[in-house]
Specification:
mitochondrion, ATP binding, alpha/beta, 364 residues, single chain, binds magnesium ion, binds adenosine-5'-triphosphate, ATP-binding, NADP, binds ligand NPW, UDP-N-acetylmuramoyl-L-alanine:D-glutamate ligase
């Protein structure tokens, strides 16, 4: 018996939806189908009328001596999901390493390391002495704290050309670097640029939640430990963290409706008003770097969703829909890679799956 290709596509779609739906009571298959449709609505069509950059210019702020893989994963996933240009802003040590992974990434060695802050501080004092000028206490204090106006300025120069920033993968937790990031976040907010905050960026937010308080174009992507750290930092009353929906909702509300993506066995996404869950089957491999891929996807999708506008969202906020798309895609890539490589699957194996996974989820 001949089987129509349309029927096969419909069956494949149903199988994906059944895996997505899993056993969660709060969502019917219809709900899940509708949410996938919302993600489909935000995807910009590929046409001959567009020029380079229109599908997305994304910046990743992260990458230090210890961690070069994380910013690479975030930056390459942004390109593979459909962005046209991906920039990495990292430390001087990390730049040649990240460049060597891929010729497709634009790498800016602009973030300052603590020893450089110290060098500049000494230079400043030296110049002050030569000019016979006293170095003010405040200026000395700023620089010894690792402040680097240059690093912020270097990133700021690029901000008018960027559609979204992903802040934190492989950043590290040195005070000098975090100080740079404070300035970069303030500059991004002033320009209303969407920011996805992950990994060590979340460490900074746990120290200073006011940095993103009330900024509705921010999306936080904590893993389990990062989520607990944020809860503790932001909420004064005790919260039952085993109620993941309730805890996510409360954290988002306390942060002024910043979208929070709690990664885990299910991904629980909340903007303080609604909660979406992504249960699409991923894999049982927990190799490092999968969250970095997710943050890169989200950087692109959040700007797609904001650009598509609220009328295409059926009452959901754009960051919520974008987060659902990024979570689904990460899990689908993990599932496909695991089917091929089983126990030996690593995050690098997920990268060639991005195109096929995207088609399977959003183009059928
Ligand atoms: N290839 C690269 O360059 C990569 C670099 N990366 C970069 O590393 C930096 C640090 O980020 P991170 O996420 O590893 O945080 P970190 O504080 O070291 O870990 C905390 C500890 O928490 C635990 N733990 C974690 N998850 C848990 C869970 N679900 N449930 C329960 N426990 C859990 C676990 O503790 P343990 O099991 O040892 O008790 C873990 O050791 C950051 O810049 C990031 O971007 C990564 O992106 C990976 C790829
Ligand atoms: N127990 C689980 N079962 C299935 N999928 C999971 C599970 N835990 C996490 N994931 C998925 O793995 C991806 C990364 O989540 P994870 O919690 O590992 O982030 P992370 O710790 O920040 O990763 P990274 O190593 O990149 O820093 C997400 O897509 C999430 O849905
Ligand atoms: Mg992570």
């Amino acid at each position: 018996m001949a089987v129509a290709p349309g029927w096969l596509a419909a069956q494949a779609c149903q199988r994906v939806l059944k895996r997505a739906f899993s056993l969660h009571k709060a969502h019917s298959i219809k709900d899940m189908e509708n949410t996938f449709q919302l993600v489909k609505n935000i995807i910009p069509p590929l046409t001959s009328k567009k020029h380079k950059g229109q599908a997305g210019r994304i910046g990743i702020v992260g990458g230090c001596q210890e961690y070069t893989g994380a910013p690479y994963f975030a930056a390459i996933s942004a390109l593979k999901v459909g962005a046209d240009l991906s920039h990495v802003f990292c430390t001087r040590e990390a730049a040649p390493v990240i460049k060597s992974y891929s010729p497709e990434l634009i790498v800016h060695p602009v973030l300052i390391m603590p020893w450089m802050a110290f060098k500049y501080w000494k230079l400043d004092v030296y110049v002050g002495v030569l000019k016979d000028e006293p170095v003010s206490g405040r200026r000395q204090g700023d620089l010894s704290a690792g402040d680097s106006p240059d690093a912020v300025h270097e990133v700021e120069k690029w901000l008018p050309r960027l559609h979204a920033l992903v802040v934190g993968p492989g950043l590290g937790r040195e005070d000098a670097l975090l100080k740079n990031v404070e300035g970069i976040l303030e500059a991004s907010k002033a320009r209303a640029i969407p920011v996805v905050i992950d990994a060590d960026g979340l460490w900074l937010i746990a120290q200073q939640p006011t940095l993103i308080q009330g900024y509705r174009k921010a999306v936080l992507t904590p893993n389990h430990v990062e989520f607990l750290r944020l809860l503790e930092a932001v909420l004064t009353d005790p919260v039952d963290s085993s109620d993941r929906r309730g805890a996510g909702l409360r954290l988002s509300q306390a942060l002024g409706n910043v979208t929070v993506v709690q990664k885990g066995e299910q991904d629980v996404i909340s903007d303080g008003e609604q909660v979406l869950e992504c249960n699409l089957q991923g894999s049982n491999r927990r190799c490092g770097g999968q969250g970095d891929l997710l943050s890169g996807f989200l950087g692109v999708m959040v700007q797609w969703a904001l650009h598509a506008g609220p009328e295409k969202m059926n009452g959901f906020s754009p960051p919520l829909v974008a987060a659902f798309g990024a979570c689904s895609l990460t899990r689908q890539c993990s599932h496909q890679a695991f089917q091929k490589y089983g126990r030996s699957t690593t995050t690098s194996d997920m990268i060639p799956e991005i195109g096929p996974a995207f088609s399977r989820l959003f183009e059928t």
